[in-house]
What does this fold into?
Amino acid sequence: MWKYVLKKLLLAIPVLLGITVIDYIIMSLAGSPLDMMVGPRMTEGAVAARAAQWGLDQPVYVQYWNWLREVLHGNLGYAYKSGQPVADIIGSHLGPTLLLMGVSMVLGMLMAIPAGIYSAVHRYQKRDYAVVSTSFLFSSIPGFFLALILVYFFTVRLGWLPSGGMYTPGTGGGAGDVLRHLILPSLVLAVGVAGGNIRYIRSAVLEILEMDYLRTAVAKGIGRRFVIRKHALRNALLPIITVTGMQIPTLFGGAVIVEQMFSWPGLGQVTWDAVLSRNYPVIMGVCLLSAVVVLLSNLITDILYALADPTIKY
Amino acid sequence: MKSKEKGGKYRQIMKRFCRHRAAVVCLAIFTVLLLMAVLAPVIAPYEPTKPTGKFSQPPSPEHILGTDKIGRDMYSRILYAMRVSLLVGFLATAISTVIGVALGLVSGYFGGAVDKAIMSFTDMVMSFPYILLVLVAAAIFRPGMVSIVLILGFVDWPGVARLVRGNVLSLRETNFVKSDIAAGMPRRFILFSEILPNTVAPVLVYATSVFALSILDEAALSFLGMGVQKPTPSLGNILEGAESLSVLTDKPWLWAPAGTVIILLVVCINFVGDALRDAFDPRNADAFKG
It folds into this structure.
């Protein structure tokens, strides 16, 4: 088992390096941040000085090499203009994003798992069609539009929930306040998660319900409900784990848009601003972080898979 | 003889498709919307980019969906926006499908180092948060219709590549391909006349979901100002002003119809794709297989 984990980790390193190379190339194609500074208030000399200060006067591969060397020494670099360490920027915005993503994931799976199982157990009945149609609807609503609708009802019409931010300004915040701000954005993301997963879980459970050992179990007369709970669900766990792991990159992407809509102070906002102002070190930091998160979540999925299914050997 | 068999096969597929009543209804709705989009220049009562009435008027007989904040007819704008959004979705899907099929075919058929290289590149693109790639790419090219098509097209292919590769791997083990290889048939013939036609069905089904996703992504990016640019209307950038509370509460005609059209389009495409999956592959003839 440990050998397997180690092997997977070693295999992830070239992929990670590859991702950073692609990032750097794409980013350099995007144009230099210096272009945005040239203006009546900057002399050419000042621009050249900035270029030298940020290392932008060197060829791209040298820049990449310098960046990589610093990263290997544990330094993610410093943001342009503000000069803040990238690690600090990411560190201070990581919490809200993880909170948002975690809550949305749990909420989404809490909707998807019971709905998927319910739908599979009542296959080809009216309730099955209703659940599946709802899941199609869920995965067809654009997140930003759902956000608008939710704000319309819960903020404008009912006045129950705030439409943006993480704390009520002027107050100290507190868990209850954060929770109230969290409901709408996490609901938007959760609907997206549930939409795709209901059908996936439904077909996973259906596949298991057709297995011979389940027919045997039912034939033994231990009761349908018990069979489903004891035998079917345990085995449906495997595909559920896989699909949960696959959610993470999608969820991160969704978070960028949702954070933008609800002005949630997370990494999505940081990314958005960094892309708009071509803040290379920040973009690279976020890309590196997200690549690590995705690769780690793949690894954890593999390990959980091994734990849930004793027949998998490494 | 052969053509008759083929006709029978298509009739069977049609029959299985029609068994999904929801999908048939969706196909009809989609066709109507598509026709409206294609015929927009004929049926739109006004120019989509020219102010033709008073500002922000609610729906009236002259402007059945009202006017926007600079007096343009919303109904005409939505018709043209559908045109743009459907075109972007279609082109992006076409590009990503072509890339995915090509890479998948090569990867699956040749195997070895080529396969490894292509698949690890696919993994890299896949483990990249999608929106991040799109955002960075949108910052490179000037935002606009062409760049959004290219961005979505070059980002969406890994799924297709994996699907095709898997299919090729299993087709390679079938007797008819093995006998082709044994008979010394040219590689081109085997790839394009034997293997490719047998992967068309799953690719088509997959492409419908890419189509739906592309429409959603285009809408989101245009809404945030990174996609199709004004004054060209798209289903996303029409909704741009809807964040403001006064529009949201007092002028629902500015956002409700366009949003409904997006949802309707995407739901219909998804349902049709799902029914196609069953129609092509009767083995897992489960009504809504995931």
About this structure: The radius of gyration of chain A is 24 Å. Residues 214 and 220 of chain A are 10 Å apart (CA to CA). The mean pLDDT of chain A is 81.
